[in-house]
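User: Okay, second chain of the day. Same drill as before: sequence in, structure tokens out.
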Amino acid sequence: MLEEGEKLAHEVGVYNLSVELLATLGRFKFRTSYGQNLIVHTLEETKIGIHIAHEVGADENVIRLGCLFHDIGKVLEGEGSHVKLGVEFLKRFNIPEKVVNCVAEHHEDKPFSSMESVIVYIADAISGARPGARYEDYEEYVKRLKDMEEIAKKYEGVEDAYAFEAGRELRVIIDPGKLDDSQTVLVSQRIREEVSRALAIPGEVKVTAIREFRAVSSEAA
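Assistant: Same drill. Structure tokens below.
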């Protein structure tokens, strides 16, 4: 593991990392995301990010580290998304805040805080979306979306639910006659927590609860 992690870090021009960080990066060799090996993805993303940095004058070192570490949470154990796990792990090693923010924001879970964060996000999207990079079983994909919707629909006061954005956002329609505003907020939080806990979904899940009350009165002319 250590040797593989060191090889990956050196190939993207990063040196003097701790043994634990290098060993963790070495796990990338045995991890895939939608069929794309993490080492291949990380190397590709870093090269793309650095090229963009050259063009726009961004901090190349921040982007280099942000790309290298962006998916480190995928090889860690714990509760929460790979973004959350990665951020918590990197903070233990006093990684610069701008680099940690690149990791925290690469799935748009938080608003972008810098040009470097935007570039890491773009480089990640390009690497993952290029033809032939990834694949996903269509039936599994549809099943995940349906499972999200079914989790939401079982809560009292929920009329309907729609999953989209590859399962990273859930739109919930609330019956205004059954739930008030405060209850709607509480239900949306519970749905988000259960979906995140029960299903393996990249990044944080966004739940938008819509509660609309309409009263229409008309009089014939």
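The two ends are 81 Å apart (CA to CA).

User: Thanks, on to the next one.
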